[in-house]
Every structure is written in C-alpha cells, then in structure tokens.
Amino acid sequence: MSNPYFQNPTGRPWTRRSALKCGALATAAVLFENRLGFALPETPPPAPQAKAKAIIQIWLAGGPSHLDTFDPKPEAGYDYCGPFNKPIETNVKGIFINELLTELAKQADKYTIIHSMTHGNNSHETAAYMVQTGHDSSDRLVYPSIGAVVSLLKGYDAGYRGLVPPYIVLTEPLGRFSEDGFLGPKYKAFATGGNPTQQPFAVQGIVAQGISSHHQEQRRDLMHNLDLLGNAMKDDSAVAEFKKCEADAYDMILGEGAKIFDLTQEGNAMRQWYGMNTFGQSCLAARRLIERGVRFVTINFNGWDTHKQNFQAMRQKLPELDKGMAALLQDLTTRGLLDSTIVWCTGEFGRTPKIMWDEPWNGGRGHWGSAFSAVVAGGGFRGGQIVGATDARGEQVKERPVYPWDLIGSMYELLGIDPDGTFPPRYGDGTIRITQVATGDIKSGGRLKEIM
After folding, report:
1. What is the tens place of the pLDDT at every residue in 297-339?
2. Cut 0.90: pTM above it
C-alpha cells in the first residue's frame, strides 16, 4: 500500500517493504557507524543557560595603569608606584585598590578584579580590537565587537523590539576599529553624542538642541496638513507602513525615546550621587537603558592614554570613575538588576609599570599589553574575588593568565551564547567561530569558571 504524499528518494511511492528496508538500513548504520567509516549527524549541544540579560561595558579608552587602579604595588618603590603608595583595603579582606577609589572600596564584595589580563600587544588599534572582539588581530576576517554580537544574537535575532537599538554607546564611538565587523552596519552601536550633563541631553537624531517639543509637534502637524497624497491614500498598505515608521520615529523624538535619555526624571539627588560629569551621568543613563531592555551599553570614558603627567590625570580621572561606577553597582543591586547585568570595566591594555620621569614625559607611563587589569561584576560573576596575579613590579603575569577571548567567552556563556559555536550561516560558510581558538602562538588560560 502506498501514500502519494510521501515520496522515497527514487521518486516512486513508498511501499511497506521499502519502508521496512529503509528502517533496517538506518538501524544498521547506527550500530556499525565506526565500521562503516561514517557517523550520523549529531544533535548540536544546547546553548548554555543564560544567567545574564545585558552588559554594561565601562571602556577606559587609552588604557589605564593597572598599578594606579586595581593592582597597586607600593612595595615596588617610587619609580613604579609614584605618589600612590598607600592603597586602601576594601570591604573584602585582603583586596586592596588605589587610595582614591574610596567608594569602590566599599563595593568590592560585588565585583571581581582580574589582575592577569594579557595579550602582549602595545598598539591601541590592535589591542582594542582583541579586547573588544575576543579574536586575535592576525585573522584575515574583521570580527564584530562583543556589543555587535550581542546585538545580533540577543537582540535582533532574538526578537528584540525595543524602541531604541539594542547596542548603545555613551557618548562617542570607540573609533579604533569597525565595531560591526563582517556583520554590517545594522549591528553597529548607536552612539548618542551629546553631553548627558546638559539639559536637554542632545542625543543625536532624537533630541535637537534649541527646538522645543512644542515646536517639534507643530512641525509634525504642518507636515501632516501638507501631505495631500498621504491623506488621500490612507488605506494604501505602503502608505500605512510609511505612517507607522513615521510614528515610531516621532515616538523616539517626542515620546518614550526622549524620556529614556531625559535624566532630569531621576531627580537632582540621584544625579549628584552618580556625579555631575560626563562619566557619572553616562553611568546613570546606562542604568536607565538596561531597565528598558537594551542589551549592551558601552560607556566610552576617554582620557586614559597618559604618556605625560600620568599622576595629574589620575587625580582627576580616578575620583570620577570611583563615584560613577560605585553608584552604578549599588543602584543596580538595589533595583534587583545586578544579578542579570554584567558590568565590565577595562581598557585595551595597561601602562608601563616603570614611570617615565624624564622630559617630555614628566611622570608619564607608556603602553603595556603584557599585563593589565579588568573588573567584572554581576550577571553570574561572583564578587569579592581576585583572579590571577602579576609579579612584584606588575610587569608580567605570574599566575592564571586571562586572554581577551577567555573573558569574552565567559561573558558569552553567561549570556546564554555558546562561545564555541559559530555565527549564523548567512555570514560566510557557517563555520566562523564566535570566539578565538587557541592554536599555535595564540594561547588561552581558559574561561573564568572559578568565578562563574
């Protein structure tokens, strides 16, 4: 008896005999796959269970000194620690950080310091590329940043329907490489521009300085009155689609989109707590974006490329970092968001442990990719920990090296993205790895299982 709706590979209808024969062959293939020299396709392993929903990246652009932030070395002497020779103990016994990071010292139970980040590259462009993408710079492909990957796999491909894009940068683009890589501009970060300390926070394409909401509404109403064709073809599907896009755009300008970036809604006390500077207000804006479902926010905190007068710069930058980041950690905790939000703070590398006292440097520090620090908190990372160690002068990693692909792979895993998986087949041939494979000269210390 045959069924015309089911055809066998020969194109002829199935019979009971041919179906039994096919089933027997399949069973034999399973039993004797090794002897036959092939294996049936395996079911792909399930993606890791997600603990985190989003990431806030604090990008210390230019590369901060690890000795002047989270890996102080007062015992190395003045030529290494300079005037920062009195590190303070945090609320976790045995963890010490720079003496100016007084508020972060009260929050150490919430974060882990990785002392042993390394990649050995001293160039801004290639070091930033490795730390942001989780891939070595020698590959022929230009890989996307972690923010773009999250925008793809946890944003648009996961049905993200937020009013603002899933990947936001406050306020200026990173600029050291093409963040979207081979994914294309759809996945590039939306950079807000503007200054979040000002009112209004003039977000590019959303908030226009010098034009009030009332004026925007008048412009919209005038445009509608003049749109004779659109008014005459209200029932046309193409016109309806255009009207919907227009409504969404105006919702960004006059509705919820504008409200997301209106930091005055937080009140003066909250804004003062974060710090009335660009970094502090960017931290506050990042929290607001995460609350509304944005998947990846980068706070691009410039000014850490301290070739000259490093310590003068640190006395300005460190208090801003301290106040804004500590408030962010505490605020996320209070609102129940830290458990599902990874906070990741790092630059592209560290700085030379030995201080350059001579002219024209006057106490500056150069680039140093051999050893640097990163801080991670929330989203499944345990707090109150130290990972790895550098030597007595902070020059080399002494224990537990962590490479950029180790850390980024760990964050992917916490987000429920398989770090050993591949990008969707529409990008290449379906074999392009999400994270770097350790091979040849490319090393790996393994993912951060000890704090996950």
Report:
1. 999 999 999 999 999 999 999 999 999 999 999 999 999 999 9
2. no
Burial class of residue 11 in the structure, from the number of CB atoms within 10 Å of its CB (0-12 exposed, 13-18 middle, 19+ buried): exposed
Check if the beta carbon of residue 421 is closer than 8 Å to that of residue 431: no
The residues pairing with 381 across neighbouring beta strands, listed in sequence order, are 378
Distance from C-alpha of 145 to C-alpha of 131, rounded to nearest angstrom: 9
* Domain range 54-207+261-451, CATH class: alpha beta
CA neighbor of 55 nearest in space, from 439, 407, 432, 427? 407
d(CA 28, CA 452): 43
Closest of 265, 257, 269, 318 to residue 98, by C-alpha? 318
CB 354 within 8 A of CB 80: yes
Whether residue 104 contacts residue 97, with contact meaning beta carbons closer than 8 Å, is answered with yes
The amino acid at 211: I
Picking from 59, 60, 317, the residue whose alpha carbon sits closest to that of residue 168 is 59
CB count in 10 Å sphere of residue 315: 12
C-alpha–C-alpha distance, residues 228 and 53, integer Å: 46
CB 394 within 8 A of CB 76: yes
Q: Among residues 168, 230, 229, which one has the least CA distance to residue 193?
A: 168
Peptide bond into 144 cis (omega under 30): no
Q: Which part of the chain has CATH 3.40.720?
A: 54-207+261-451
**Are 64 and 351 spatial neighbours (Cβ–Cβ below 8 Å)?**
yes
- Residue-wise pLDDT for 71-91, tens only, equals 999 999 999 999 999 999 999
Q: What are the structure tokens assigned to 335, written together?
A: 């609102």
Cβ burial of 394 (10 Å; 0-12, 13-18, 19+) is buried
Whether the bond between 112 and the residue before it is cis, its omega within 30 degrees of 0, is no
DSSP three-state, residue 51 = coil
| Cα 266 to Cα 400: distance, rounded to the nearest angstrom | 42
- For residue 1, the model assigns a pLDDT of 40
Task: Out of 15-29, 193-207, 209-223, give the one with best mean pLDDT.
Answer: 193-207
**Residues 147, 57 contacting (CB under 8 angstroms):** yes
